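Format is sequence with structure; example below:
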Amino acid sequence: MDRKYSRILVFLALGLSACDSNDSDGDGILRLSFNGLDPLTNGFHYEGWAVIGGSAETTGKFNVGATGAIVDLNGSAIANGEFDTGLDLEIASTFILTIEPNGDTDSVPSSTHIVSGDFSGGIANLKIGHGSSLGDDFTGATGVYILATPTNGADSDENSGIWFLDPSGAAFVAGLTLPTLPAGWLYEGWAVIDGTPVTSGTFASVSGVDDDDPFSGVEAGPPFPGEDYLVNAPAGLSFPTDLAGMTAVISIEPSPDSDPGPFTLKPLVGQIPAGAISGTVYSMDNNAIASSPSGTAQVVN
């Protein structure tokens, strides 16, 4: 064979090999960054998913540290938040971030989608309002509440309970205006008492009894989310109490939930007036923008 022709063939082969290698490495590396994600506990973790041809393919499991840095499941930092996915990310349409339970080994996303976004130019801006996550930004959420203790059967300690209802009309009505949550999420009410968040129960409907009443008395409460803080006080607190000057919170919680405290998503927050009077309707402030996590997923070329 002619030496010149042989050298050309070798050069072309090396060039094609280099191009293939660079394309593969670049297409498969995904760089993630987030704002406002809470660290997950008790073995729960985050997992990224790239939607390719209508199928969700994992891009890797991780958690976030106390400072918000992306770490692996052993707590070690992941350099630049980069994951070598082995996927052809150039054809991915959407990125979805899920919360996965302890012991998760399957290749299917959980129903708890927290942020997602569509790729454009190799970048996906990730938000809770995207249709593949919670589907709403919660900026339209509103809420009112009263202080009362209907479950103690007596007109006493009335400032020791909170109920998310409005009694100002001919009949009690829901005090919360909230969108219906997708699978994998529940709302939860809280009273922050002397710095300690104490649940008032999880719920899916604003017009119905919530899921628990561990602190209430023996009488029936109204058919709305709420709680009387009368018995079984957590360590460091004593019940009955006075909620005047404390804080009311509505959070959005993963279901199942890895942590007994409030999750990062808190669309409604209300400072209970220092001179609060039982039965008076008080308003909550919309806190959706301040408490909503966000992020980006970028294909690294």
